[in-house]
């Protein structure tokens, strides 16, 4: 069999200025047959991107290919001159970067950049290239294929940019495309569409591919073979089904296990029972910007009449796509973003919208853990100093007392005491996130706001953090608000979950029932978009989606439901005009939808009744009661 | 131009106007606080208290400070900066030829230094950490660290006194051909340009290195784009804002350098007039010169910010 890519005994070293050479990639060998897709799997620092870039003969600043042979489409990449490499890159082999938002030049129009590979290789005329580009846009299901090229990167969404980047890679008809985590930065709902678009385009053109990722579920959809990497070495390689279904290496097993976090085992408290003591209660909170309307409220709403409550000792998950208002909610509760209307009650006391007007006690009891530990920990302060400062500020501890307490907190987050004398730069991402957590715990909070705390971590590390959260809750009885876009994580740590869409809570339910029972159409879309770790899932999901789904509308409705343009059970005339009713189900779950709850049960589940489909609810046939957009009901 | 950009530009100009008001007040009261008295200076040996008093009265120097300030401001608003205390000629008449000469010198320096600095700054950033870059770094840091008068004096000593290639003094009335123009301006322009260029090269290099580390530059490399196209087409448009600011700051510091250079080469420009007027306590001329320098500085920095705003708006939008 001929191999399109054949790498043998590859060695790549990194070198700081005047420092010794440190091996980054050691003795890596891999082969990819023509028309096949190889996945490079590994956590950050495993050398997967470094290997992918070496296929294009590129090493980042400070790195160098120091040994081995890289044969790509008959070329020996390691012996090519700069000029030969220029002719080779973008023509024979092209690259799709992880973050299209930063990999596109903000000062140039997208069309200019997409046809540039064809122009700099003199492979076609401008007109031919533009024609080709429009064909590719159409194949990748981009909106307005004729005119989208005239736009600039900031005018498009992340998912659209990622598809444009694929078009840029394909415009010269290369033999090989290297994908570097192309969907990691996307929402699940977008990821599924981008994956489907990539797969169909690659299959049509018989392109050989290399796909770098840490997401095994994505690997199952798109790759034929996989190589598992750790610390720059190959741990295991073979067909995808083999690696995911029957991993032989310990590390691969750990990776596979991390993608299958068991759901929370403790029996959840009854959902939304107001009799249970609540720690935090939001009612009718509005946050926005722009001009004020007649009622003195902002015209553009980031959060629109959000009402939620967190029972003591439980975890409320907040899910939704980027831009739905998740992080604004965290900033609002913590007092960094004052609200325009509504009320927030914390332990029975009303909270001031502005953090400067909250008492020290209130601030101590409500702590936030941010997504990026690097932005929280002062890089010039030792870990001990960062934690001790919180202890001194909130609890008046000083000297040896503070030192001992800081050590105790490190025990709590399962870190060795030696870290107290280290600087944040010397710690790994997972360790920094644990320190970030310890810093919040140092204040002895009642409620901790966790804003995407696992988003920047590798799956194995993230799973350990989630486990730690649950343990600490059992030990200390703290409550959490857990903001995430990762539904696996929600199931692992949350009791309840609120689904946010366009600043509105569209559903409030128990986290264990996310896959069963009645759900808001948006929740169903979210749940069905999370890739499963088995081959063929993507095909099934896309077929199911195309069968029952009307085309998304491009215009937003003036009133009514914000999800209307993307909804698969939308009823024009009803959903886009009237105030959205809130249905309360027998279990206590709330769904803001016009379609009767009984019709919102997924197909194949007990209780689904086709008769209910697309029948608007009236006041009488609702399960328990219906309130028409009453802010107090949420 | 979008409405958002127009608003931002208007706000930036508003800020500049506020600075201008502050500058006007500061100039007037600082020059008023200068020690010495023009009446004593004019009368010299013959100064009797009565004569000095009479002269002060005729020059309105016995009026309270705030009244003189109001008169001065009113005059400025009408475009009349007053009359020289010594010669009695209108300040504007004395300033005009000097301003022309100074602008000529600054213009010639700009024309020489900006393109060269851009080229060298880009080259340093492109070939970062090579021998070329290291030599340029040593040279630019050396020039930045040495005071302007020393460079000018050494230049005069080497080129005018030892080699006799160029005249030591800039007698611009004797210019009748392009060759003479170049010979006369060679010394002051090259001295001024070397100082401003050194600063510009450092700052342009830093801006460009920042842009070169962006992911879209790596993407361009991986697309097989040739290096020159990467620099000019991908990197430069994203560096316009900071580069424009670097150039404006250097050019406005050029005006500070002008005072020293004009004095050393005896160049009949604005700065020399100002230095002479300080000696003679001719306050209206000092005020007008200072105001002109400040105006140029304000104009250049405001212009650079507007260019930066426009380039950011174009690229990243609202």
Automatic annotation (TrEMBL), chain A:
Positions of the ABC transporter domain: 5-256, 280-527
Region of interest called Disordered, as start-end residue ranges on this chain: 609-634
Main location: membrane
Pfam families registered for this protein in UniProt: ABC_tran, oligo_HPY
GO molecular function: ATP binding; ATP hydrolysis activity
Highest taxon of source: Bacteria
Subcellular location, record wording: Cell inner membrane
UniProt keyword terms in alphabetical order: ATP-binding, Cell inner membrane, Cell membrane, Membrane, Nucleotide-binding, Translocase, Transport
Membrane topology of this protein: Peripheral membrane protein
Keyword ATP-binding: yes
Gene Ontology CC, one term: plasma membrane
Keyword Translocase set for record: yes
GO biological process: peptide transport
Similarity remark: Belongs to the ABC transporter superfamily.
PANTHER family membership: ATPASE AAA-TYPE CORE DOMAIN-CONTAINING PROTEIN, OLIGOPEPTIDE TRANSPORT ATP-BINDING PROTEIN APPD
Protein name: ABC transporter
From TrEMBL, chain B:
Entry keyword set: Cell membrane, Membrane, Transmembrane, Transmembrane helix, Transport
GO biological process, one term: transmembrane transport
GO annotations of cellular component type: plasma membrane
Transmembrane segments annotated in the record for this chain: 12-34, 103-126, 138-161, 181-201, 243-265, 285-312
This protein's record includes keyword Nucleotide-binding: no
Compartments, as annotated in UniProt: Cell membrane
Classification via PANTHER family: DIPEPTIDE TRANSPORT SYSTEM PERMEASE PROTEIN DPPB-RELATED (PTHR43163), PEPTIDE ABC TRANSPORTER PERMEASE PROTEIN (PTHR43163:SF3)
Name assigned to this protein: ABC transporter permease
Lineage, uppermost ranks: Bacteria, Pseudomonadati, Pseudomonadota, Alphaproteobacteria, Acetobacterales
């Amino acid at each position: 069999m001929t191999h399109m890519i054949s790498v043998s005994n590859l060695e790549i070293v990194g070198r700081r200025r005047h420092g010794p050479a440190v091996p980054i990639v050691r003795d890596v060998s891999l082969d990819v047959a023509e028309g096949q897709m190889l996945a490079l799997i590994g956590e950050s620092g495993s050398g997967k991107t470094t290997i992918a870039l070496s296929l294009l003969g590129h090493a980042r600043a400070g790195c160098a290919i120091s040994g081995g042979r890289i044969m790509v489409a008959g070329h020996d990449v390691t012996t090519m001159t700069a000029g030969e490499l220029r002719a080779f890159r973008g023509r024979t082999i092209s690259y799709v970067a992880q973050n299209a938002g930063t990999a596109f030049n903000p000062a140039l129009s997208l069309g200019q950049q997409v046809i540039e590979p064809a122009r700099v290789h003199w492979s076609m005329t401008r007109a031919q290239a533009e024609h080709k580009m429009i064909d590719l846009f159409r194949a990748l299901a981009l909106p307005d294929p004729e005119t989208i090229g005239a736009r600039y990167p900031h005018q498009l969404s992340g998912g659209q940019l990622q598809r444009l980047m694929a078009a840029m890679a394909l415009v010269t008809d290369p033999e090989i495309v290297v994908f570097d985590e192309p969907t990691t930065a996307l929402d699940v709902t977008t990821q599924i569409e981008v994956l489907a678009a990539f797969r169909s385009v690659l299959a049509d053109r018989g392109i050989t591919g290399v796909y770098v990722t840490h997401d095994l579920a994505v690997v199952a959809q798109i790759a034929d073979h996989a190589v598992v990497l750790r610390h720059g070495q190959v741990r295991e390689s073979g067909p995808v089904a083999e690696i995911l279904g029957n991993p032989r290496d310990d590390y691969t097993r750990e990776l596979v296990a991390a993608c299958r976090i068991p759901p929370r085992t403790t029996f959840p408290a009854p959902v939304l029972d107001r009799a249970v003591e609540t720690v935090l209660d939001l009612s009718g909170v509005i946050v926005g910007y722009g001009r004020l309307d007649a009622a003195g409220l902002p015209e553009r709403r980031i959060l629109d009449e959000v009402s939620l409550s967190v029972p003591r000792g439980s975890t409320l998950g907040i899910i939704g796509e980027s831009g739905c208002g998740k992080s604004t909610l965290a900033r609002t509760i913590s007092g960094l973003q004052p609200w325009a209307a509504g009320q927030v009650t914390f332990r029975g006391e009303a909270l001031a919208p502005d953090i400067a007007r909250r008492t020290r006690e209130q601030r101590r009891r409500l702590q936030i853990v941010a997504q990026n530990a690097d932005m929280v920990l002062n890089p010039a302060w030792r870990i001990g100093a960062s934690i001790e400062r919180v202890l001194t500020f909130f609890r008046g501890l000083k000297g040896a007392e503070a030192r001992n307490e800081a050590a105790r907190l490190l025990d709590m987050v399962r870190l060795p005491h030696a870290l107290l004398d280290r600087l944040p730069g010397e710690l790994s991402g997972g360790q920094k996130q644990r320190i970030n957590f310890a810093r919040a715990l140092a204040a002895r909070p009642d409620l901790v706001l966790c804003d995407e705390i696992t988003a920047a971590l590798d799956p194995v590390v993230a799973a350990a953090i989630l486990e730690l959260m649950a343990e600490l809750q059992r030990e200390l009885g703290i409550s959490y608000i857990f903001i995430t876009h990762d539904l696996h994580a929600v199931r692992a740590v949350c009791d309840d979950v609120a689904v946010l869409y366009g600043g509105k809570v569209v559903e409030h339910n128990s986290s264990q029932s996310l896959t069963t029972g009645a759900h808001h159409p948006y929740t169903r879309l979210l749940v069905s978009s999370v890739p499963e770790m088995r081959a063929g899932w993507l095909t099934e999901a896309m077929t199911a989606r195309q069968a029952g789904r009307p085309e998304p509308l491009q215009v937003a409705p003036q009133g009514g439901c914000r999800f209307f343009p993307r909804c698969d059970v939308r009823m024009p005339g009803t959903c886009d005009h009237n105030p959205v009713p809130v249905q309360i189900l027998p279990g206590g779950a709330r769904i803001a939808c016009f379609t009767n709850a009984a019709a919102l049960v997924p197909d194949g589940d007990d209780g689904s009744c086709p008769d209910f489909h697309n029948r608007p609810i009236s006041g009488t046939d609702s399960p328990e009661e219906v309130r028409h957009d009453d802010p107090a009901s949420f | 131009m979008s409405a958002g950009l127009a608003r931002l530009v208007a706000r930036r100009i508003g800020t500049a106007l506020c600075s201008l008001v502050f500058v006007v007040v500061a100039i007037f009261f600082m020059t008023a606080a200068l020690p010495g008295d023009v009446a004593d200076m004019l009368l010299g040996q013959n100064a009797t208290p009565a004569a000095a008093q009479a002269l002060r009265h005729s020059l309105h120097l016995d009026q309270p400070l705030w009244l003189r300030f109001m008169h001065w401001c009113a005059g400025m608003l009408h475009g009349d900066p007053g009359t020289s205390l010594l010669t009695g000629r209108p300040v504007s008449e004395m300033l005009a030829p000097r301003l022309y000469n100074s602008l000529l010198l600054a213009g010639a320096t700009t024309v020489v230094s900006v393109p060269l600095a851009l080229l060298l700054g880009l080259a340093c950033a492109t070939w970062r950490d090579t021998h070329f870059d290291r030599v340029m770094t040593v040279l630019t840091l050396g020039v930045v660290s040495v005071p302007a008068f020393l460079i000018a004096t050494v230049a005069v000593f080497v080129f005018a006194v030892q080699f006799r290639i160029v005249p030591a003094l800039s007698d611009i009335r004797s210019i009748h051909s392009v060759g003479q123009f170049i010979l006369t301006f060679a010394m002051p322009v090259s001295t001024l340009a070397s100082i401003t260029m050194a600063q510009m090269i450092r700052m342009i290099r830093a801006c460009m290195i920042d842009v070169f580390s962006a992911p879209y530059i790596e993407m361009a490399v991986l697309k097989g784009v040739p290096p020159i196209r990467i620099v000019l087409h991908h990197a430069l448009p994203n560096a316009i804002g900071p580069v424009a600011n670097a150039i404006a700051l250097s050019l406005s510091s050029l005006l500070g350098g002008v005072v020293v250079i004009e004095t050393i080469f005896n160049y009949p420009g604005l700065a020399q007039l100002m230095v002479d007027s300080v000696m003679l306590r001719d306050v209206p001329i000092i005020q007008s010169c200072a105001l002109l320098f400040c105006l140029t500085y304000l104009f250049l920095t405001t212009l650079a910010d507007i260019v930066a705003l426009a380039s950011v708006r174009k690229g990243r939008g609202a």
